[in-house]
Amino acid sequence: MSPRVLHYVDSSRPGGIETHLVQLLPALRRAGIGAELLLHRRYGPHPMVEALAAAGVPVRHLGGRARALPGLLRARPGTVLHTHGYKAGLLGRLAARLAGVPAVSTMHSGASGGGRVGLWTALDRATAGLGTEVVVSPAQCARHPRAVLVPNGIALPAAMAPPGRRVAFVGRMAEEKGPLAFARLARALPAQDFVAFGDGPLLEAARAEAGGCVAFRGGVPDMAGHWPGIGLLVMPSVFEGLPMAALEAMARGIPVAAYAVGGLPGLLADCGFLALPGDEAALARAVADWAEEAPQARALRRQRCRDRVTERHDIAMTAAALAALYDRVTGAAADAAPAPDAA
User: Fold this and answer.
1) Which of 23, 54, 62, 164 is the most exposed, fewest CB within 10 Å of its CB?
2) Interatomic CA distance for residues 201 and 279, integer angstroms
3) Alpha carbon distance 304, 273 (integer Å)
């Protein structure tokens, strides 16, 4: 019997984790896993919830009451709790331990941050051993040596996007994603057409830094309708795991220029452009090299991008790897359970 898996997350807006869940949960259900979404709190309308509900994935929420989680898990024998994000990771693993059910936590990576976010992140990492850790790129294995590597995947689009000319940023306008570096890049290359998708605390600072050289589109619930026309995705991130935006772009034949962080070096080898972290001049040269690429070379690069995702990051592969992991942790939990008293 396949396990029932509650994917637990605290989310108020779209982002990489949310895109991952929208792709993953329907794929798990197609693979025979009873995957459901559990929101810590309902903050209002959410594109992730709407997309999963439309795909037939059950969605429930705790109303912000973490103390209710152990009881919910006890009432659902055979459940695995799979957490995403630092807050859900900490609260979920503690609740799973109290309820006596297995916990799995995907460590999506990112900046530690300061203040309350930094505290939550530190506590999340300190308690990671209470469950089975999953990492999404080999670069994370040094920080999580006991983790299971399950690379992110996506549902492959039917075809590549038509060749585009715009240079795009897709992500949260926060320090770890480098939106100010992207804005400076646009000012340094005024002949190119730059566009940015995303919102966050640095949005207004990025607008000011860009000096009118970037078209800011704000946050969008789904990039599917925006990829056509984009020719290059730029990711000046200082922290990454294996970013969903890069996979989505490459599956459509859109190459990526990025700093060599997280899983990006392995992903972009032979089909993208890499610069040392923080080297804005090198990133600018990468964009210029892309702009000057001959049509035949560009077509070959686009196909290599598509092939890389098709061969290594189909969401069905991710779902199959996680299904095997769930079977393993539920089997281990059953073996560890005390034997019933003899009659």
Assistant:
1) 54
2) 23
3) 13
- Which of 304, 246, 297, 238 has its CA nearest to residue 20? 246
Q: Distance between alpha carbon 335 and the CA centroid of its chain, in Å?
A: 33
Residue 339 predicted with pLDDT over 90? no
Overall pTM surpassing 0.85 (yes/no): yes
Q: Taking CA 179 as the corner, what is the angle to CA 175 and CA 184, rounded to the nearest 5 degrees?
A: 125
Q: Do residues 243 and 235 make contact, with C-beta atoms less than 8 angstroms apart?
A: yes
Could you tell me which of 230, 113, 108, 123 has the C-alpha nearest to residue 174?
Answer: 113
User: Residue 338 in 3-state DSSP?
Assistant: coil
Query: Hey, what CATH topology would domain 4-153+314-336 get?
Result: Rossmann fold (3.40.50)
| Pairwise CA distance, residues 243 & 20, whole Å | 9
Same fold for the domain at 4-153+314-336 and the one at 166-312? yes
Residue 29 · residue 56 · CB < 8 Å: yes
pLDDT single digits (tens) 44-77:
999 999 999 999 999 999 999 999 999 999 999 8
Task: Count Cβ atoms within 10 A of the Cβ of residue 189 and give its class: 0-12 exposed, 13-18 middle, 19 or more buried.
Answer: middle
Instruction: Note the pLDDT tens digit of each residue in 265-297.
Output: 999 999 999 999 999 999 999 999 999 999 999
Q: What is the pLDDT of residues 301-317, one digit of tens each?
A: 999 999 999 999 999 99
Q: Let me know: does 104 contact 125? Beta carbons within 8 Å.
A: no
174: Cβ–Cβ under 8 A, 6 or more apart, which residues? 111, 200, 201, 202
Q: Give the residue carrying structure tokens 């200082």.
A: 238
Write phi, then psi, for 82 (nearest 5 degrees).
-115, 115
Compute the half-sphere exposure of residue 99: CA atoms within 13 Å on the CB side of its CA.
Answer: 26
Q: 166-312, which class in CATH?
A: alpha beta
Give residue limits of the domains in the chain: 4-153+314-336, 166-312
Amino acid identity of residue 235, one-letter, is M
| DSSP line for 54-87 | HTT--EEE-TT-GGGHHHHHHTSTTEEEEEESHH
